[in-house]
Amino acid sequence: MAGKQTPRLKSPILLWFTVALLALSLIFFLISFHSPSQFPDPKNSITKLNYLPETSFVTSLDHFLLTHKPNPLPQETKLSVNELDDLIWKSENHRLYEDPYYPITMPIRVYVYEMPSKFTYDLLWLFRKTYRQTSNLTSNGSPVHRLIEQHSIDYWLWADLIAPESQRLLKSVVRVHRQEEADLFYIPFFTTISFFLLEKQQCKALYREVLKWVTDQPAWKRSEGRDHILPVHHPWSFKSVRKFMKNAIWLLPDMDSTGNWYKPGQVFLEKDLILPYVPNVDLCDAKCLSESELKRTTILFFRGRLKRNAGGKIRAKLGMELSGAEGVVIEEGSAGDGGKAAAQNGMRKSLFCLSPAGDTPSSARLFDAVVSGCIPVIVSDELELPFEGILDYRKIALFVSSSDAVQPGWLLNYLKSISRAQIREMQQNLAKYSKHFIYSSPAQPLGPEDLVWRMMAGKLVNIKLHARRSQRVVKESRRICTCDCKPSNLTTTSNPL
C-alpha cells in the first residue's frame, strides 16, 4: 500500500512569495533590534548624541558666532497698535476657550525682536575681538572682559531662544514668530558690553537709538512696555535712558535698595526678576565635594576687595574683625586669571565662604561659593536672591545680620557651633542646587535659563493685568501713587476712604 504523500504547494509563485516575506520580516527585525529609533524623542535627542553642554562663555560665543548670522531685517509691514491689539485678543481668546487649563499648561511664548546687528551681533563680535586685551580694567581693578562674562545673562538667554528647536531642551518657553501669539517680548540688546567697550558718548548715542527703536514698536506702544523683557544685569549699564523704559521687566542682579544705582519706582520684585551672576570658578560637583571633604580645613574664607562703597562698607569692618583669626583666610584680590585660581583654590579648602555686600547688596562671590561647595555666609541685610520663589536658600546658606557679624568674636563662635551633620547636609544640598546657577549651551532643564521662564510664568497673569489696565484707564481717572510721585504733585483733597 502506497504511503500517504505530503501535500505540496500548488504554485511556485506562492512559494517564492512566502520565502520573500519571511526574509523581509527577518531583515526588519534585525534593523529594528540593532538601530536606534528613526524618530528620536526631541526632548532627549541632544543627550543621545552625547552633546555635552558648554558652560564657558568665550567657547560658547565662538561657536555661536560661527554658526549664527544676522537675519535680514523683516520688511516694514508694521501693524498699527489697534490692529496688533485685535490680533492678540483673538489669539488669547482662542487659547482661553480651546484649552480649559490655559495658561497653566502652556509654556511661555516669547517673541524675540529682530534688531539691527549693531545692537546685537556687532557687540558680541566687539567683545570677542578685544577679549585678549586684559589690561582694560575698571576703576576698582577688575578686568572688564571678566566683568562682562559675569553679567552675560543676556547672551545665554538670547542664544537659547534663537537656537533651532531641534537643539533646545527647555519646555518652559517657546519662541514664536508672530507678535500676536506672544505672551512676552524679548529685547536682545547687550547693555553691559556696550557700556564697558564703547566710548562714553558713543555708548549714550547707541542707548538713545535702542530706546527709539524699541519704543517705536507697536507692541511696546500697546502695553507701554509692560510685557517686554530688558536685560540690564550690570547696575551701571543703560543708566542714561532706562527711566524711559521703567515699565519693562528688567533682568537684574539685585534690587539695590541703597538708591545708588536705581531710582525710586524703577525696580521692584513684582515687576522685575533677579538673575544669578555667571560663576567665575569651575563647578565642584558631588564627586569633587567628596574628594575635597578632608581638605576643607579652613573655617571661613574670603577673597576680594575689602574697600567698597555704600552698603559694602561692612566688608572693611568684617576684615578688621576677622583678620588674623585662627582658621580664617581673608585675602585682598580682584577677578583676573590669578584671582580666579586663588579664589577657586581657597573656596575648595573651606567649609564656609563669607559673602558680604559690595557696592550693591549682591555679589558674584555668592554664586562662586555655591558651585564650589563652600557654604555661603551671607552678610547683606538688603539682599534679594534669584529664583527665591522656587529655591529655599536656607538649605544651602547661612544668613547673618550686619549688626551681629561685626560683634567681636560673634561670627566665628556661631560658625563653630554648626554641627558636622548640618554642614554635611548643606554641602549635599549645594551639590544639588549648583545646577540652578550654571549657564550653558544648550540650556539645561532646571538651569538658570529654565528657572527664568518658570518665574516668568508666575508673573504672567499680573503682567497682563497691568498691561490691559493701562489700556483702558482714562486720562482723567485717579491713578495710584507710586514711589516716584513727588509730594508737590499730590492733591490736598481729603480721601473719603
From TrEMBL:
The keyword 4Fe-4S does not apply. It is found in: Golgi apparatus membrane. GO terms for cellular component: Golgi membrane. The chain crosses the membrane at residues 12-33. It comes from Ziziphus jujuba (Chinese jujube). Pfam families: Exostosin_GT47. Residues 107-415 form the Exostosin GT47 domain. This is Probable arabinosyltransferase ARAD1. Its main location: Golgi. Keywords: Glycosyltransferase, Golgi apparatus, Membrane, Signal-anchor, Transferase, Transmembrane, Transmembrane helix. It is a single-pass type II membrane protein. InterPro entries: Exostosin, Exostosin_GT47. The keyword Chloroplast does not apply. GO terms for molecular function: glycosyltransferase activity. Belongs to the glycosyltransferase 47 family. PANTHER family: EXOSTOSIN FAMILY PROTEIN, EXOSTOSIN HEPARAN SULFATE GLYCOSYLTRANSFERASE -RELATED.
